[in-house]
Specification:
With about 100 residues, the chain is mainly beta. It has a domain at about 5-55. It is built from no helices and seven strands. Strands 1-4-5 form a three-stranded antiparallel sheet, with no helix packed on it. Strands 2-3 form a two-stranded antiparallel ribbon. A two-stranded antiparallel sheet has the order 6-7. A hairpin with a 4-residue loop joins strand 4 and strand 5. The protein is rod-shaped and about 85 Å long. It starts with a strand and ends with a strand. It comes from Vibrio parahaemolyticus. This is Cadherin-like domain-containing protein.
Length: about 100
């Protein structure tokens, strides 16, 4: 009966799934060759071993962050500017009007 011990990786995390398999998660934004070292024990002797994992690069989804409140200072909107809200200041505070366009 063989057991695997002291599993280590230089570029990610290995998790023992408890069923004889491991799950590897590379470091964030890593691609390239990963060296995995471990010891194999047969109950009598332990020998060191290693394996290599080739991590291929992937294209990350682009991220766009826009503030939820945008202020546009203008009194001259062209017709057809659908999607904009008009906010005006009155003596009682701010009031939001209808969609412009």
């Amino acid at each position: 009966n063989l057991t695997v011990e002291n599993v280590a990786s230089d570029s990610g995390t290995l998790v023992d799934n408890g069923d004889g398999t491991y799950t590897f998660a590379p470091n964030e934004n890593f691609d390239g060759n990963v060296n995995v070292t471990f010891d194999v024990n047969d109950g009598t002797a332990t020998v060191p071993a290693e394996a290599n994992i080739d991590v291929q690069s992937v294209v990350d989804m682009p991220e766009l962050s826009i503030a939820s409140d945008l202020v546009i200072a203008s009194d001259n909107f062209e017709s057809g500017s659908n999607g904009w809200n008009a906010t005006t200041e009155s003596s009682h505070g701010f009031e939001t009007g209808d969609m412009l366009g």
